[in-house]
Design brief:
Blueprint: E1 10-15, E2 20-23, E3 26-29, H1 32-43, E4 52-60, E5 65-75, E6 80-87, H2 93-128, H3 134-146, H4 160-175, H5 180-184, E7 190-192, H6 195-205, E8 218-220, H7 222-267, H8 269-275, H9 279-299
């Protein structure tokens, strides 16, 4: 099917229900303070009122737009009041263009705030990675494991002897958190030398000694790996923090839904158990997730 290059393309969209702006297909969530203090005041009264709520605005590359509103009306058939969506009458193009420009301005403002907050938080986490801690050793160990995951796939190009060395290397990496150094003087935690280091250097200086069979093949590399992985650790912690910040409200909302259903079950147990036989299992699962997530947060 042929594509018309001149066809109008959606440039900017405002979704007031999700409180989100999308510009050229890139969405940004509008912060609550900016929404209340700036955008709501700008939309009132031409675009949004107490009786007619703006729910969406779309501006296209050919200079056209459409807007949808929601009104609270009485349904005379049922006698009940309900929300009814309808297409808003076209305002003058200059007013619509002003709204479009305001939304683009808001998009770039939100983008700059996000980048500033991101960089500040990254810098804060980077500054924290100055001393060896049990957490930084664990992360460095995990990064070393992840970087050798490819060795363990069935179509790995390594020969059996090299693959056996990597298997032993990964086993020793997992065991380092059980060593006495990790428990008492974490900065002296000894990491196993890698199979490549053994093959290229160690075995040539000490021929006849098998891989990871002597204490000398375990080196106190905590500070080295902290320096090597400092930026990676900071990015990991930042992404972890952002993910948990976004995830927790959803998790808690789902938890409250299960909890509300459980309270309802206490009042009408027979009907509830019939309709929601797995609610307790869901509640137990969510309780477990919250406990585990909180434990992870406390490690930061």
């Amino acid at each position: 099917m042929a594509i018309n290059a001149d066809a109008p393309v959606l440039q900017i969209e405002l979704d007031t229900i999700a409180q989100e702006i999308s510009y050229n297909g890139i969405p940004k969530v509008i912060p609550e303070t900016y929404w209340k203090d700036t955008l709501s005041a700008f939309l009132y009264p031409l675009w949004d009122t107490d009786k007619d709520k703006l729910i969406s605005f779309h501006w296209y590359t050919n200079g056209t737009y459409h807007a949808k509103r929601r009104k609270f009306l009485k349904n005379f058939k049922t006698g009940l009041f309900e929300w009814k969506d309808y297409e808003m009458e076209q305002a003058d193009i200059p007013e619509a263009n002003q709204l479009k420009e305001k939304l683009i301005e808001a998009f770039y403002l939100i983008d700059s705030l996000e980048n500033e907050d991101y960089q500040k938080e990254l810098g804060r986490l980077y500054a924290k990675q100055k001393i060896v801690t049990p957490f930084s050793v664990r992360l460095a160990r995990n990064f070393l494991l992840s970087e050798t995951d490819w060795v363990m796939v069935t179509d790995s190009p390594l020969d059996a002897d090299t693959k056996a060395k990597y298997t032993l290397y990964r086993t020793k990496l997992r065991e380092l958190t059980a060593t006495s150094e990790f428990a008492t003087q974490v900065e002296n935690t000894k990491f196993p030398i890698s199979p490549d280091f053994y093959t290229e250097i160690w075995s040539k200086d000490f021929p006849g000694i098998d891989y990871l069979t002597t204490p000398e093949q375990f080196l106190p590399l905590g500070k080295h790996y902290l320096k090597a992985f400092r930026e990676k650790i900071s990015y990991y912690l930042l992404q972890k923090s952002l993910t948990e910040t976004a995830y927790f409200p959803t998790l808690l909302q789902e938890y409250e839904n299960v909890r509300a259903a459980q309270l309802a079950a206490d009042e009408t147990p027979t009907a509830y158990e019939f309709a929601n036989s797995d609610a307790q299992a869901k509640k137990d699962f969510l309780d477990k997730i919250i406990v585990e997530a909180q434990a992870e947060l406390e490690k930061l």
